[in-house]
Write a structure and sequence with these properties.
This protein is α+β, with helices and mostly antiparallel strands and 188 residues long. The chain has six helices and seven strands; from the N terminus they run αββββααβαβαβα. The protein has helices at 13-24, 74-83, 95-112, 127-140, 155-161, 172-187; strands at 26-33, 36-43, 46-58, 64-72, 117-123, 143-148, 165-171. It has a seven-stranded mixed sheet with strand order 1-2-3-4-5-7-6. Strand 1 and strand 2 (36-43) form a beta hairpin.
């Protein structure tokens, strides 16, 4: 098992990717063009099997990581479980697992690029799913800022986010500090 020697209170990008490979059967990569970035999670045992992705951009002003889209593909997760000869896909084998790995990887990317804050919109395209997203992102450590709806005052936010939903944010360092012990505890 991998052991982390970092003395930092927050996970490094290398620690996150090492954890993914050694403990989850997930390969994380990130690419960027200017302020835009896209992180992709693939099965370690089938690089063509995309498990999910997260895309966003670093706002030029305000030190904000605007996490625009996150999607995890359930059929790809099921396929990864079948294809994994080591049965390491346990933590990566749930939507929460891959979503958490992608989210923390993108938060770390933002912090490494000067972002002290992260923003995410829990999209409202159905009441049940919206409540689930808000609950999920709250557990991750994001806080509710406000609901972006159909009001005239929400037009600018809707143009930025592309839809209605609950705007949530958090401090990058706080999010990483919250999850660092769990990652390090499972590895040590």
């Amino acid at each position: 098992m991998a052991r982390f020697s970092s003395t930092s209170p927050t996970l490094t990008a290398d620690e996150i990717t090492d954890y993914c490979v050694t403990q989850s059967g997930v390969n994380l990569t990130i690419s960027s063009l200017g302020p835009a970035y896209r992180a992709v999670a693939r099965s370690l045992y089938n690089n063509t099997n995309v498990l999910g992705y997260c895309a966003g951009f670093i706002r030029p002003t305000g030190s904000i990581n605007h996490m625009d889209t996150m999607e995890v593909f359930r059929p790809a997760l099921e396929q990864a479980k079948i294809e994994d000869p080591t049965e390491k896909f346990g933590n990566g084998g749930s939507i929460f697992g891959v979503g958490l790995l992608l989210g923390l990887f993108c938060v770390r990317h933002g912090l490494d690029n000067g972002c002290s804050k992260v923003e995410f919109l829990a999209i409202d395209d159905g009441e049940r799913q919206h409540k689930r997203l808000v609950r999920h992102y709250s557990r991750l450590g994001l806080e509710i800022v406000r609901y972006v709806g159909d009001d005239l005052r929400d037009v600018p936010a809707r143009m930025v986010w592309g839809g209605r939903g609950t705007l949530m944010d958090g401090r990058s360092v706080d999010l990483l500090e919250k999850w660092s012990p769990m990652f390090r505890g499972e590895i040590s």
